[in-house]
Design goal:
heterodimer; A: 395 residues; alpha/beta; Ubiquitin-like (UB roll); de novo design (two linked rop proteins); five-stranded mixed sheet; 15 helices; B: 154 residues; alpha+beta; Glutaredoxin; 2 domains
Chain lengths: 395, 154
């Protein structure tokens, strides 16, 4: 085997027990907001929920908005199949997230934070509330005005989409809004709002504690820093791992595969399926000018070995999307239904194999016309599975 | 006043009577009653000065806000890819066999309801299920029988 140019690099920041958060908070709150924004920008931290928006820029835009009231929301509606890292952060190092929220509040000018926690994680509430109480008590002691409240979801995947999350918090159906306007000016209750993923907030703790350079030095160009990966499926060591960005999928499979890995789903059901022949041409990070294809991810890595039928995998994903589509826009609502019944019809021989091409066209339409990321991203897994494993789809 | 009316009043006092307090109130009723009856949704609408249709529309959007009568213990078995791959159906069959209950049904004594749900976020410890808010992972037919027998004693 040819030696790969890049090996897996473990990192250990997120779960490191930094029990000096009080000192870091004091130190950070003494620095001017602009300096903190600059620090985040120079770290090149991008959103770890999967979308990859630059965190520093998000804080900056919200800070500049003239809203009379602003909010900080921690998105803990971790619903993407194959992701389970945020729960681990909230149960092991909640104070990092709380501190980051308070710092964000200081930077943008907000005194109110919310954690939107998915209903499936309700068992976390007592412990998390205890951490919040301790944290708020400390904030009060040092004279920093910031409060945090948990808002529980009730089993809707789409509420992880930031504007659907606002709708849900406002007591409505979790149906995404049109963008623009963006949350940085029109978020929760129409006010300027920062919504950050749990992991993104935890990384800002690292940056404020160790400095932007420490973070920037990890990873590769356009994909700086480390990232938590939720590894599951056919692997001898499922679990959560913090790795530097920019690794090749080949190296990843070498480390985590069971020796018979047929394909890896990168980024959950809304991500891409990469077949074995493309492992060495795929890197994990954000879109940039890297050689080969670089796939962004919220950290979900699901491995499938040769014993798995890709038809069953796709069928399972499509059932998921069909149920979780909010139903608001036609391309997604009807599209998911048609894709799901379409592959079944092809499998049963009720439709010719060429019908798959029609379905592929439909996913293109969905990608162009669906209102939010859910409908737009169904095409990712659908086309990557159907194009690479067409023979498994047909009768 | 019926007990449900008291509960709704109490929840509204605690959370507030704005539209943005609707979800916590709906969740509070489900926590206690295990589901939202038409009657409770109408009462909530009245209490918050909303239309009953708005409350119904919102409540029925969320899969954890049941609007049919449920058992004391709601079992939700994860059916998303990794759990499905790692033996979810065997878990379901074990539960069905042991409790004599079909999928989507409630046992005749009103103790258990059996449902499937989308990704619970325990893919590294699949298969997984929730019983009310409690998580059970790395399930096998044997471990499920053991867990359920504990609940049967309750």
């Amino acid at each position: 085997m040819v030696a790969s140019s890049y090996q897996l690099k473990r990192a250990d920041f997120i779960f490191k027990n930094d029990n000096d958060w009080e000192r870091i908070l004091d130190k950070t709150l003494k620095r001017p907001p602009q300096e903190l924004i600059n620090e985040l920008m120079s770290s090149e931290l991008k959103g770890r929920g999967g979308a990859g928006f630059p965190t520093g820029l998000k804080w900056k835009l919200t800070a500049e908005d003239p809203s009379d009231e602003k909010f900080v929301i921690c998105n803990a509606d971790e619903g993407e199949p194959g992701t389970f890292k945020d729960r681990e952060i909230l149960s092991k190092v909640p104070y990092k997230v709380l501190m980051a929220m308070a710092v964000c509040g200081y930077v943008i000018g907000s005194s109110k934070g919310y954690i939107y926690l998915r209903g499936e994680y309700k068992f976390l509430v007592p412990e998390l509330n205890k951490a919040i109480q301790e944290f708020e008590y400390y904030c009060k002691e040092v004279g920093h005005d910031f409060s945090i409240q948990i808002f529980l979801g009730s089993g809707a995947y789409i509420c992880g989409e930031e504007t659907a999350l606002f709708e849900s918090m406002e007591g409505k159906r979790g149906e995404p809004r049109n963008k623009p306007p963006y949350p940085t000016s029109n978020g929760y209750l129409g006010k300027a709002t920062v919504v950050n993923n749990v992991e993104t907030l935890a990384h800002t703790f690292t940056i404020f504690k160790y400095g932007a350079k420490k973070f920037y030095d990890l990873g590769v160009q356009y994909s700086r820093g480390s990232k938590l990966f939720s590894v599951s499926g056919d692997t001898p060591k499922p679990g959560i791992y913090e790795l530097e960005l920019g690794m090749s999928l080949q190296d990843f499979v070498h480390e985590f595969g069971d020796g018979d890995t047929k394909a890896v789903q990168v980024g959950g059901a809304s991500g891409f399926l990469v077949p074995r022949k493309r492992f060495d041409k795929t890197t994990i990070g954000y879109r940039g000018k890297l050689t080969g294809i670089s796939l962004p991810t919220g950290g979900s890595m699901m491995l499938y070995n040769s014993s798995r039928s890709m038809y069953n995998v796709l069928d399972n994903y499509l059932e998921f999307f069909r149920e979780e589509s909010c139903g608001q826009c036609t391309p997604c609502r009807v599209g998911c239904q048609q894709l799901h019944s379409g592959i079944k019809a092809v499998k049963r021989g009720e439709k010719p194999a060429q019908y798959l091409d029609k379905l592929l066209k439909l996913t293109e339409t969905m990608q162009l016309t669906a209102k939010c990321g859910l409908g737009q991203s169904v095409a990712n897994s659908f086309s990557s599975i159907v194009e690479n494993f067409r023979e498994e789809m047909i009768y | 006043m019926t007990p449900i009316h008291d509960l709704i009043k109490k929840l509204a006092n605690e959370h507030g009577r704005n539209r943005r307090n609707l979800l916590p109130i709906l969740q509070g009723v489900v926590e206690q009653e295990k589901y939202l009856s038409e009657h409770s949704m109408i009462e909530i609408a009245r209490e918050l000065n909303l239309s009953a249709a708005d409350v119904y529309g919102t409540a029925t959007f969320y899969s954890f806000l049941e609007h049919q009568k449920m058992g004391t213990y709601i079992i939700r078995v994860c059916k998303t890819i990794t759990c499905s791959m790692k033996g979810k159906n065997q878990i379901l069959l074990t539960i069905q066999d042991m409790l004599k209950v079909g999928l989507g049904e409630t046992t005749s004594d009103g103790k258990f309801s059996l449902l499937q749900t989308n990704c619970l976020g325990w893919c590294h410890k699949a298969p997984a299920m929730l019983i009310n808010n409690e998580v059970y992972t790395e399930l096998t037919p044997e471990s499920v029988r053991e867990i359920l027998s504990q609940y049967l004693k309750k």
